Each structure stands twice: as C-alpha cells, then as structure tokens.
Amino acid sequence: MGELQSRELTTLSVMGLPVHIGDQYADWLLLRQSQGLGAQVVTLNAEMAMLADRTPELKAMIQQADLVIPDGAGIVLYFRLKGKRIQRCPGIELAEAVLQSLRMDQSVVFFGGAPGVAAAASAAWQQRNPQLQVTGLQHGFVTPDEEAAFQTHLQSTQPTVILLALGVPRQEFWMQAHQHLCPQAIWIGVGGSFDIWAGRKERAPAWFCNNNLEWLYRLYQEPWRWRRMLALPKFALRALTYSGS
User: Fold this and answer.
1) Tens digits of per-residue pLDDT, 181-190?
2) Residues of the domain holding 213
3) Single pTM value for the model
C-alpha cells in the first residue's frame, strides 16, 4: 500500500459532500485496482450537489464513494471563492485517461445510453486503443430479464473498469447496489460520454473546456437544458450559506 499512500488525495468539502483533489486520478485508480481494491467514482457538479442536498440517499452514496472528482465549473468556482484554486476534472477526461491506460489483460464494460450507443462508443474506443478489451456492452433500456443476465455476465467476467452512462442519479445508485458483483472493479458514472464517443454529440471546443464554460456550450447545443442550468445560481447561494452536516 506504500505507493498508493504516497499518492494520497486531499479531501475538501462542499455542502457536506467530499471532493478529492489530486494530480493523477487515473493512475491512483489503476494502482488501487492492481492492489485488489475497487472504487466507486462520482463526477460531482453543481446539479448533482443540489440533487444530493434534497435526496439523502444520493448524499450518503456520494459521501461513501471512493473518489469524488470536481467535474463541474460550479464546484471549481465555489472553492475559488473560498480561496482554494483547484483544477476541474471532467468525468469524460478521467474515463478517457483510464481507458488509454488499460493493458491487454484488462477489460472494460460499457453500460448505458440508448440502444446502439454503447456499441458505437466501444467501437470508437477500440480504434483509439486497439488493445482495449471490451467484455460487455449493454444499453440502458434493459428489461428485468436483460438486467439479470447482465449482472450475471459482470460477475462471471470480472472486468477491470465498468462505465455507466445511465444519468444522475440512476448510475450512482446502480453502481452502489451492484458493486458487490465486481468488488475489484473501477466503477465510473460517465453521464453523456457515450454519446460524444459515439459521435452523436459534440463536446465543447477546448477554449470553453479550459475556461470552465463547457456548460455554456452545452446550453448552446441543447437550449432545452436552460431549466437545468438554473441549478448553478441556486448551488452558488446554497453552497456559500451551507451550514449543515
């Protein structure tokens, strides 16, 4: 455990939720996994924080997660206002770093998205990393029988990484409820990443990403999201006045 301990993460807090700060999240996860320790990874943004604030079950799940990364611009801005400059780590970039680092004896499962999207995302990734071993593909619109068969598949194959694109909070609750099937796996909730990898949607240009404005580009692409974006000012007010546990 010495090397893992040498890469300890700093833990900050926002609205009673942990945020882990480090330089090489992917390396930390893969080293942890190589030592027989699995991980539940949460990619925290303002919208999720607000949902957790009114959903005790989600709040508890995030508090118990092994790694909570600062995915959203609102999280970064909150800490900046508190005098702490942290680097945003989008969940899609963490997942990409992990996938790029997998060896031929390691494997990944893609679970979620609309029918066909997980398969397209997987195919795109196997072009980017030809040695990537994909041992499971399952869209997110599963029947009870399909889900039971998928759980059996996970337990029998024991993949290294399980990517869940089920949306918040379904993906977080699903990983929490089923981590026992693959206790040594890295579980990451990746939201809409499959759509981007599959070419169904386009990620914001680098300038927007580098300046914490990816949310603005997403609003431009999907104007219907404006109601969800109201979580940002609500989060700012709630986070700065939060005094709960």
Assistant:
1) 999 999 999 9
2) 9-164+184-201+209-241
3) 0.88
Structure tokens at 183: 């206790």
Q: Provide the pairing of β-strand 17-21 with 67-70.
A: unpaired
The type of residue at 223 is P
Distance, in Å, from the CA atom of 214 to the CA atom of 174, rounded to the nearest integer, reads 27
Query: How many structural domains comprise the chain?
Result: 1
- Tell me if 43 is assigned to some domain: yes
CA atoms in the 13 A half-sphere facing the CB of 138: 24
End-to-end CA distance of the chain: 31
Q: Give me the pLDDT at residue 221, please.
A: 64
Top-confidence residue, 245 or 107: 107
Residues 6 or more apart from 181 whose CB is under 8 A from it? 151, 154, 155
The DSSP secondary structure of the chain, one letter per residue, reads -HHHHHTPPEEEEETTEEEEE-S-HHHHHHHHHHTT--EEEEEE-HHHHHHHHT-HHHHHHHHH-SEEEE-SHHHHHHHHHTT-------HHHHHHHHHHH--TT-EEEEEESSTTHHHHHHHHHHHHSTT-EEEEEE-S---HHHHHHHHHHHHHH--SEEEEES-TTHHHHHHHHHGGGSTTSEEEE-TTHHHHHTTSS-PPPHHHHHTT-HHHHHHHH-GGGHHHHTHHHHHHHHHHH----
